[in-house]
Design goal:
CATH class of the largest domain: Alpha Beta
Radius of gyration: 30 Å
Structural class: mainly beta
Shape: globular
Number of strands: 44
Number of domains: 3
Strand content: 35-45%
Distance between the termini: 16 Å
Number of helices: 8
């Protein structure tokens, strides 16, 4: 049997590669964790960390880098004057930096021209601000205005004059009734973005907060006009908007040129009516951890006295995502604690990035008395293509749909609704600062416990089991906890064939800070193991919503060495496994290995065989699918290659050649991927194909044997 799992070249699991006279023997990479496919988000990869190879698909995350055409990284210079060019608006007037006594008006022209704004409380205007220096991107601040007052304005640049538009200054501090629209990821699809804007316009909002990914490529100047400003036409003339920066803005000069934001424009806070809104930069290009300038500013800013009734924090990347496959944002462990500290009075965290709507249950630390908790909301349906969701236990409502979220403030309560591009209300709830009922409150300590579980299982030693004799397992996992109040619960095991557990239900009672002990005690009968026992950690009912954790904690070690039989006749790599060299694949031979089937699809009886000749290592896998759920596409003459294959069902062979890892993968859709280390490998010649059988789907691969000549070479085979 092959049990696949964590591989650390420095630790050198297993024994060395042995070249046999009639074939090839090679060592497996080491143990496998049945817990690596838990319904738990995976940790973000960190250099040097030992990780379960079997769960590589969960650990990598989904980052797709799409090359963009070369473009300017700043607004364009003046059009060359070789011939006469008429002046024109490239971007019509829009509003920025709203305060009770000021408003910034911006616009863009195709030529360098002076800037003039006429304004007044009637359509006769009457007051003027002039900036004589010619520019293409115009920024004029109107000052000494009255709070909550309607003004009319018109902009001029040379002979250009806009229509007369309206604006309204921010209302006086403490104003109870007002409306805010929040949305993100408006990039890539201007027509859909326009439909979102039309729904925002119907809502009659006073302020718009954008959670980032405004455009597909922030370095492409034209994209700003086509993907954002043109769809925003009409609304942007009269309603100010404030943004956080997303990864697709690429930290480009265009973003900071088009914005007029407070502070350094990466992280800042501002007041509007009875709310205080903090905007942060959650992107990879800026330091964000607890020793960063941004974190220190945030911690200090939250401690400052503020009269606002409500405090919201906005940034791009969610800390608690409903994405179906994306890994955990490691920023969660730095930022969530400061947001959840009741002394900081944060009411909600507003994010984008994941293209759907997701409202989480209020979250906080468990206390003796019920707490309000913090709302974590993902509102990223502004136009980009939608993502699949997963209803994790901290998610109250999720839907993959284009939308925006409306916050209708009414003093110490907010009526919140998610509105689709057709006007359908997808979700509606009332946000208050009252204690949240237990069935709608998630304990952050449980999410920390999930993290400790992942780390403990990744670092745990594997338990050897035998296919030929009874095995006894007697060990335990000790997990730190951070509960500040006593909690109780029980450990409940699910029995599976060939496993006899010493206890199937174990109660526990934890004092604050006490470790949770999980005994792993079982007698295992010899043979194949289509599944391992799963465990439920169930906390007492009535305290909080996220009260159960599911895991499969037994980490098994299989054979140290697997054998590739010598073949004189090379198989045809068509995925059919009908060549004579594969004969006996269903027989119980020592060179015919089974792959462990892990939850939630435990019970598979997958089999794999290895062949070798002088040039190639051949891998044949038969993947159990009696229900014919897996659909196989015909091979293409021009096969599709994509790393995304690793995030869906596939068969993967991972080879350590003594220096670096090589990955070869194929999916039922015939999508394939070859990788060398963390890079795509476009030079190694290899072959693969998948096909359909009556009760299985099958895979064949041919991998160069030159990768296995080093004595330290290892191999691992994965079916995800």
């Amino acid at each position: 049997m092959l049990f696949f799992g964590s591989y650390d070249p420095a630790r050198r699991h297993g024994c060395s590669l042995e070249a046999l006279t009639e074939g090839l023997s090679h060592r497996t990479m080491g143990p496998c964790s049945a817990a690596s496919l838990l319904d738990l988000n995976a940790e973000t990869l960190m250099p040097g960390r030992t990780l379960p190879v079997y769960s590589l698909t969960l650990l990598l995350g989904c980052l797709l880098l799409i090359p963009a055409p070369a473009s300017n990284d700043s607004p364009p210079k003046e059009v060359p004057t070789g011939k006469s060019v008429e002046s024109a608006f490239l971007v019509e007037p829009y509003l920025q930096l709203p305060t009770t006594t000021s408003m910034t008006i911006m616009w863009e022209t195709n030529l360098k021209l002076p800037s003039t704004v006429e304004y007044g409380t009637t359509r006769e205007l009457g007051q003027t601000v002039v900036a004589k220096s010619p520019v293409v991107l115009h920024e004029v601040a109107l000052k000494d205005l009255d709070p909550g007052t309607r003004y009319y304005y018109r902009v001029h640049s040379g002979s250009l004059a806009s229509a007369i538009y309206e604006l309204r200054t921010a209302p006086p501090p403490g104003t109870k009734r007002w409306r805010m629209a929040v949305y993100g990821d408006s990039r890539s699809n201007p027509a859909t973005h326009r439909k979102v804007v039309e729904q925002i316009a119907k809502a009659g909002v006073d302020l718009i907060v954008h959670t980032g990914d405004i455009v597909l490529n922030g370095k492409n100047h034209d994209t700003w006009r086509t993907e954002f400003f043109e769809p925003h036409r009409g609304l942007a003339h009269s309603v100010p908007w404030v943004s956080t920066i997303g990864n697709h803005e690429r930290d480009a000069d265009n973003y900071f040129s088009y914005m007029a934001l407070p502070g350094n424009e990466h992280f800042f806070g501002f007041d509007y009516a009875n709310a205080h809104i903090i905007c942060l930069d959650s992107n990879a290009w800026i330091e964000k951890g607890r020793d960063s300038a941004q974190y220190e500013w945030l911690a200090s800013h939250l401690k400052e006295p503020r009269a606002a009734t409500w405090t919201f924090v906005a940034f791009h990347h969610p800390l608690f995502s409903a994405h179906a496959t994306r890994p955990i944002n490691s920023l969660r462990w730095d930022w969530a604690p400061i947001f959840l500290d009741p002394a900081n009075h944060v009411d909600g965290v507003l994010t984008g990035h994941d293209h759907f709507y997701a409202r989480n249950y209020r979250m906080g630390r468990l206390a003796e008395e019920p707490q309000p908790g913090v709302l974590f909301l993902t509102t990223a349906g502004g136009g980009a293509s939608l993502y699949r969701t997963k209803a994790r236990d901290y998610v109250a409502r999720e839907k993959s749909v284009h939308h925006f979220t409306l916050f209708d403030f009414d003093g110490d309560r907010i009526n919140v609704s998610a509105v689709s591009i057709t006007g359908e209300v997808l979700d509606r709830f009332v946000l208050t600062r009252d204690p949240t009922p237990a069935d709608q409150f998630c304990a952050y300590e449980v999410e920390e416990l999930r993290r400790f579980l992942r780390l403990a299982l990744a670092g745990a030693a594997a338990v050897p089991v035998s296919a030929h004799k009874q095995s006894i397992i007697d060990t335990e996992i000790r997990l730190p906890t951070r509960f500040r109040v006593p909690v109780q619960g029980k450990l409940v095991w699910r029995q599976v064939p060939k496993w006899k557990l010493r206890q199937t239900e174990i109660p526990f009672a934890l004092q604050p800070g006490q470790a949770l002990r999980i005994p792993l005690q079982a007698i295992v009968e010899p043979g194949d193991y289509p599944a391992t026992p799963s465990l439920t950690i169930a906390f007492e009912p009535g305290r909080f919503h996220n009260r159960t954790i599911e895991l499969a904690p037994f980490k098994l070690a299989g054979p140290q060495t697997v054998t590739a039989r010598h073949t004189r006749d090379a198989p045809i790599i068509d995925g059919q496994l009908d060549d004579g060299c594969w004969a006996g694949m269903n027989q119980d031979a020592e060179w015919n290995y089974s792959l462990l089937g892990l939850p939630p699809r435990g019970g598979r009886m997958d089999r794999v065989q290895l062949l070798a000749d002088k040039q190639w290592l051949y891998v044949g896998a038969r993947l159990n699918d009696p229900g014919r759920q897996v659909q196989i596409k015909k091979p293409s003459l021009a096969p599709v290659a994509s790393r995304l294959v690793l995030f869906n069902e596939h068969v993967r062979v991972v080879v350590w050649d003594g220096k670096e890892t090589h990955t070869f993968a194929v999916s039922p859709e015939q999508i394939r991927y070859a990788g060398k280390g963390a890079r795509e490998d476009t030079t190694t010649r290899w072959l693969t194909a998948a096909d359909r059988e009556e009760r299985n789907w099958s895979v064949e691969m041919a991998i160069p044997r030159t990768l296995l000549v080093d004595p330290e070479a290892r191999i691992n085979i994965v079916h995800r």
